[in-house]
Amino acid sequence: MPGKLKARIVAGRHLPVMDRASDLTDAFVEVKFGNTTFKTDVCPKSLNPQWNSEWFKFEVDDEDLQDEPLQVTVLDHDTYSANDAIGKVYIDIDPLLCSEAASVISGWFPIYDTIHGIRGEINVLVKVELFNDLNRFRQSSCGVKFFCTTSIPRCYRAAMVHGFVEELVVNEDPEYQWIDRIRTPRASNEARQRLISLMSGELQRKIGLKVLEMGGNAVVGYLQCFDLEGESGLVVRAIGTACTLDKLSSGSAPNTNTHMHPNTAPASNACNSPSKDGKEPVFGEDLLSSSGPPTPFRALPTSSSSPPPFSPSKPCSRQSSSSDTDLSLTPKTGMGSGGSAGKEAGPLKTLLRQQTQTALEQREFPFFTLTSFPPGFLVHVGGVVSARSVKLLDRIHNPDEPETRDAWWEEIRQEIKSHAKALGCHAVVGYSESTSICEEVCILSASGTAAILNPRYMREGCLDMGITDHRFEEPSPPSCGFCHIPYDELNMPFPAQLTYCYHCRRQKVPDVLFTTIDLPPEAAVTGKGCLIQARLCRLKKKAQGEVNATAISNLLPFMEYELHTQLMNKLKLRSMNALFGLHIQISVGENMLLGLASATGVYLTALPAPGGIQIAGKTPGDLSNEQHILTIQKRINDTIAKNKELYQINPPKLFALDPEVFCGINMELTEEVVGSPIPDPRQRSRLFRSHSESSDEVSELDLSHGKKDAFVLEIDDTDAVEDIHSLLTDAPTPTGFYSCNTEVMPGIYNWTSGVQMFTSVRVLRLSNANLTNQGLNKIFTDLCENLLKSFYFKLRSMIPCCLCRLNFTVAVPEEELIQVAVTAVAMTFDKDQTQEKPAEKAITKGCSETEDQLQFPLELCADASSANNQPSSKISGVPETTNVSSRDRCSTWLELLRLKAHTIRRGSVKTISSLDRSSPLPEGRSRSLRSNRSFAGGSVTVVKMTPLSFLPGTRIIKYLGIINMFFIRETSSLREEGGVSGFLHSFIAEVFAMVRAHVAALGGNAVVSYSMKECVFMENPNKNQAQCLINVSGDAVICVRETDQEPIPSMTNIGQTCTSGTDGAT
Amino acid sequence: MAVELDVFVGNTTIMDEEVYQLWLDGYTVNDAVKVRMEGGVMEECEASADVLLSDTMDQYRTFQMCERLLHSPAKLANQLLFQIPPNRQAILIERYYAFDDAFVREVLGKKLSKGTKKDLDDIGAKTGVTLKSCRRQFDNFKRVFKVVEELKGPLVENIRQHFLLSDKLARDYAAIVFFANNRFETGKRKLQYLTFQDFAFCAGQLINNWTVGAVDNMVEDMDVDLDKEFLQELKELKILITDKDLLDQHKSLVCTALRGKTKAFNEMEANFKNLSRGLINIAAKLTNTKDVRDFFIDLVEKFIEPCRSDRWTAADMKLYLTHYTNSAHILDTFKHQVVWDRYMGVIKSCIFKMYHD
């Protein structure tokens, strides 16, 4: 009996009138946990009852505490007939089970009824007393922290990243049980809500156990999904990244390297059953359709970071890496020896790399659900890997043995793993899984980004990065290192044009890079980014069973290929060369498939400038046709030019003295100011360009897309014309707006505190029965474009602002219906500052954004002096010492990174100017925050919500636990509730309200990493009925204004100066 | 192909003040879109008519959902469904309870009953206010009336606290409630020249001086009902016109004071008895509910109109009434000084306010 749960019912307010005669209500409350139920007294004739009940005590197992929610039911007492239920509140106890999260739940909760929505509020107090449980074989995993955030949470430090955890549980869907025929819709909905709540609790507990087994204490990037398989059951599955997190208390030093985990290694060994390890992936049997197009899809690159002597690192074949296992001890001893480490960096690194590979390969799936990483974690990025598989659902016979579903996912994961290997990568980051179900057909999808990771975080014994750091210092600067290809140049997994990195000029980079992760904060970017979407509809014949599944799996590769081509074209049209946060969703309906790919395009300074798009006609000689081609060509060229201006893409080589050209200018100026003996960059770039051209010629044979520079589009039929038209119809974002689907917009740094999270849903009915693919594409594209236009219009008062984490979800709920749901956040930023910045920087040569650029010449400097590419001790040494002394001042990874950048710069450049700049910034921010604050005067706590992992202008001081809520709403008076729109509008508003109330009750004031994972809407207008299921999740947090804190400002925003951090360093 | 469902929900509820006003004014969605298009909001953000329509529908839905809460504004502050910053809440409430002067002028003094509600379409047609807006305004009046009817304490303060309105708006509502309760006649042709603000001012005067609350501030209905005792006492003033001596004495005192100070002196002298009779008769009859209703029409007929036909200026009027009031104090046989002041204080300020074109 290791836990005591206590609950007290205080009062109610705004209750509905339940007794028509008196216009009042005789309310009482039932509090239920597990099988125990308590009741309060009846509070007669009041719409604002005061119960002030005693403490109801439940003595329960901690296992139940994790699985079960506390169920509070408000009823109207009726002497003669049955008591009427007013509504319910489900309270997730989980946050109380972790000492670091919330300690009490107390507040007003909306009383929710699945038929009537919110009906008043109830004030509840919940506490938990946990007794220490020493039982080794316990089934609970209390204390393991869960985070939806896909990066290391802001007030923690990752001592170790253990890796992938997954679990799934299945059950029969109550909606499809025989009993559903005789019970009320309310009872059925409540059974479903309760079951899913139970299943999520169980799932979380099981994952927690796995984490404990691995020696971790937290799951980051926790992604839980529901598969409503209808007749065949209900699947709840989750993936995440197990970590050992250390709390950073702002005052204390985090560098006490006492976080040893002696039993980590055995534990992780144990759980990665070696037997599975060697197993070759088996696919191709049933209806597995392997990943996308043969070419750049799974590819797209980065270079080996190893210094020249080791440079052509062998493609990491299984054999070579396994033979390396015995070497794995060497780097450890090497580390212990200290001193000469700097010089040994090169060879050591290689050893380490092999060693990590081994460490990673021991794992069944070296996958990470994280999308942004501590600095130095990500070494190289290979490109997107994805796999899809079409399955036929049948009844899950034994819910306790969900083997089929497990096997399906296992298969997909194996495929992903092998794709990553083909790219010369040993890990997959930014990994996610999803499904799309239509009747009995289910498409399972998984995607991620193949990558090479720094071993530092994977091994026990060298957790303290402060000491080991410099020995494994990247020879390639962090601003471009991740772009360098990880695979062997001579043995490329796919055709690509390689050039020398435009940033460091030492390693090879691909011409384009696609990834599913966020843009690393340290990456050098030219100009601004933008949202790029590829949209596609494909009709298919209606069919049943295997025929249907085969048809779908035959269509999939073509869809992926087309989506990819669209993305590529749109990227070129915007004159950009990389995609981040790529998410491709393929949704299946009875008679069509929908594909939607979203990503944020950027111009990575390290990658070559994209060539233009060239239109070629298949039938020369036809004059009118050629005329036509010429006009299109002109339009395309104009669009490209316009986009370059819009996104301020002026790659360094142009050297226009336009103040808006961030990077080009900065590089120039800093070099001049520093007066380093670096050769004129113009010469250098020319030099290297000739190089790259020659390499282009070599690889030209492999090119699938034609000529060197321009990307050729052939117009041979009307389809192609349509494609080009659709390419050009994407409306540009209105002035003052930017949009991206990543955490933040590359190129915007000065966020102000304006935040507006929103959810928008649109459903389109296709009335025209005989639509063509082209017609459908147009409709679908317009739907998405119009949604974006609506957002811009609605949020126009926030200008200048950026829509971040634009997350589109498409579905085909019924034949002839297309549903698009979007959740995103609009954030304001300071435009003036953006404009001032370049100039200011040019003069003061030392503001935040310059850091990236500054590092570049400095690295070059180092290279120049020591031709052997070994980091000169002058540079790597000085910052290290400062780093150590200042480390205790850092509260986030980002800050650490920035500090490093600062200190590196400090080695040769004066930094006083950055201190000057600090003064105007906080002032402005505090002003805007203050105005915000005055709003908070109401009696209801303002709870901000954002899909990002932070709130601009604030600092997260505490994570209170995961929010994972599932609601069903049903109506049989659809018209009276304002039709489908009115129904869904109030339901979404209710869901927001319930999330806010739960967060406020935990003592929080914000939800970060919020997402709406499921929004299933069904209607039957003829019967005046509709039903909707919504699943949302996020992390409840307490955050404070950045200016409120002690001397340490945390870098919640990329690019804000860490001025006081630097203070500390001095 | 048709948009079947289209919603946009913000964590902080997004409300456009312009659309809110259109909604309050009773525009249909399509009319509102037209107005917005003409207003040029489209150019502002490169929007299309579709975007505008979708936005307008969303906003209308939001307002409809909020309307329930606006009926008891105190709920708006502690409800959980919409996250609206307090300053916005205040705007929402204030605008919701705002009314058209043209409309309220028509309803003022009428019984806030179903019967009146049925006539709203006529009033709407007459004033150019949409029926929807008329209904909202009428329901607001009725709601405020019902709530304060049962409350103790000062009327304006009750309205302000219960409906979270600004002082100005609370005073206007107090006037509306007061007029509706006493059923003052305001609709006669002769009263047409008076604005709502004129009446509201008078109502304020009456509430502050003639109600029960003016003497005792903890009775029910204290500010809505006139002080019966006071009305009884007003009968005593009749002596000023029934007693011939007193009347002459009063006249000579006033005339002495006025002589040479105004061009209208002759008319004043000639009309003194008539005017005085008029005012005192009004006072004496106020015990009859019927005559209370005709209070304003009597003021106009018995006093304002004669003066106007004699072309008194506003300054003349002020001068005359001041001396008329003060001179009564010098009459040694006149004992009802307190009642006289209470009566004339209000009459004076009401007439000042009402004496215009």
UniProtKB/TrEMBL annotation, chain A:
Gene Ontology biological process terms in this record: insulin receptor signaling pathway; intracellular protein transmembrane transport; positive regulation of D-glucose transmembrane transport; positive regulation of protein targeting to membrane; positive regulation of vesicle fusion; protein localization to plasma membrane
InterPro entries found in the cross-reference section: C2_C2CD5, C2_dom, C2_domain_sf, C2CD5, C2CD5_C, C2CD5_YbjQ-like_dom, C2CD5_YbjQ-rel_dom, UPF0145_dom_sf
Biased segments, Polar residues type: 250-275
UniProt GO cellular component terms: cell cortex; cytoplasmic vesicle membrane; plasma membrane; ruffle
Places the protein is found: Cell membrane; Cell projection, Ruffle; Cytoplasm, Cell cortex; Cytoplasmic vesicle membrane
Main location: membrane
One Gene Ontology term of the molecular function aspect: calcium-dependent phospholipid binding
Domain C2: start-end pairs: 1-109
CDD domains per UniProt: C2_KIAA0528-like
Keywords per UniProt: Calcium, Cell membrane, Cell projection, Cytoplasm, Cytoplasmic vesicle, Lipid-binding, Membrane, Metal-binding, Protein transport, Transport
One Pfam family this sequence matches: YbjQ_3
Region span, Disordered: 250-345
Low complexity bias spans: 313-330
Name of the protein this chain belongs to: C2 domain-containing protein 5
From TrEMBL, chain B:
InterPro entries in UniProt: FIBP
Gene Ontology process terms (BP): platelet aggregation
GO MF terms, alphabetically ordered: fibroblast growth factor binding
GO cellular component labels: nucleus
Pfam families: FIBP
Residue stretches spanning the membrane: none
PANTHER family: ACIDIC FIBROBLAST GROWTH FACTOR INTRACELLULAR BINDING PROTEIN, ACIDIC FIBROBLAST GROWTH FACTOR INTRACELLULAR-BINDING PROTEIN
Name of the protein: Fibroblast growth factor (acidic) intracellular binding protein a
